[in-house]
Design goal:
alpha/beta, Rossmann fold, 7-stranded mixed sheet, about 35% helix
């Protein structure tokens, strides 16, 4: 089964009436996702994409039964949108918005404490349960239902790995883009815990990159629990120059920390299998699941 999403997921979109929200929500609907409402302050009472638009998340949830939200709100107002969804007790919030100010995200993290909300992002490509629900902006076409969970900090590499897993006949149970901004919601460790508890997920791929300490934290967790499920990891940015941001706001090696080689070494010591190259992730997982080296 999938994590985070299922066939009963009912989605509202905060910022649906903007271009990005309109474009991607239309694709989500086409995929089969149950999008039930939009939220744009000041536009309540209208319809957009054939769906009702509300001024407030609480009203949208009350009237439609929405249990997930996707946020397409510009960075300056994105934190307020996330906090509104948290206060409305939306169980799952996925935020696509990139480069939300760090201090704003600190406020969001504070709002999450003690709440029943799981936040994916900001700067997330979303969550995809193949054939069940698409909540995000990821490309589709190569994904297939299967047994491998994918946790990633990189949107483009997620698409590559999904294609490899499908070609290997493994498919995916769920893919989760945790987000590339320095402060965000669910971590790689949080996602791994959910995958390890899911009986239908037989293996997990972790896609990391330079910057931050998430890969080291998930390595500590792997070393602690010694999971029976194989874990394959790819950490990119081996040749990235120091002190230079590489794409994502959080992809920055600074002060001797956050480099790709150290992250890969920590994961390997913990027991994860390290894919030698980006094009070998699918093959490495296939070998791990078959018991080979």
């Amino acid at each position: 089964m999938a994590i985070l999403l299922d066939r009963d997921t009912r989605v509202l979109c905060q910022g649906m009436t903007g271009w990005a929200g309109s474009h991607h929500v239309a694709q989500m609907i086409e995929y089969g996702t149950q999008v039930v409402a939009g939220v744009t302050p000041g536009k309540g009472g209208r319809t957009h994409l054939g769906l009702p638009v509300y001024d407030r998340v609480a009203d949208a949830r009350s009237e439609t039964g929405a249990n997930a939200s996707i946020v397409f709100v510009p960075p300056v107002n994105a934190a307020a949108a996330m906090i509104e969804a948290i206060e409305a007790e939306i169980p799952l919030v996925v935020t696509v918005t990139e480069r939300v100010p760090v201090l704003d995200m600190v406020r969001v993290r504070d709002a999450l404490r003690g709440s029943g909300t799981r936040l994916v992002g900001a700067n997330s490509q979303g969550v995809l349960a193949p054939g069940i629900c698409k909540l995000g902006v990821m490309a589709t076409g190569s994904e297939r239902p299967g047994v491998v969970g994918v946790v990633s900090r990189s949107a483009s590499l997620t698409s590559e790995v999904v294609a490899q897993l499908t070609e290997a006949g493994l498919g995916q149970s769920t893919t989760v883009g945790v987000g590339g901004d320095p402060v965000h919601g669910m971590s790689m460790r949080d996602c791994l815990e959910l995958f390890l508890a899911d009986d239908e997920t037989k293996g997990v791929v972790l896609i990391g990159e330079i910057g931050g300490f998430e890969e080291e934290e998930v390595a500590d967790f792997i070393a602690q629990v010694r999971p029976a499920k194989p874990i394959v990891s790819l950490v990119v940015g081996i040749h990235a120059p120091r002190e230079r941001r590489m794409g994502h706001a959080g992809a920055l090696t600074s002060g001797g920390s956050g480099d790709a080689a150290a992250k890969a070494a920590a994961l390997e010591r913990a027991g994860a299998r390290i894919a030698a190259s980006a094009h070998l992730v699918g093959r490495t997982m296939a070998e791990a699941l078959s018991g080979g080296r």
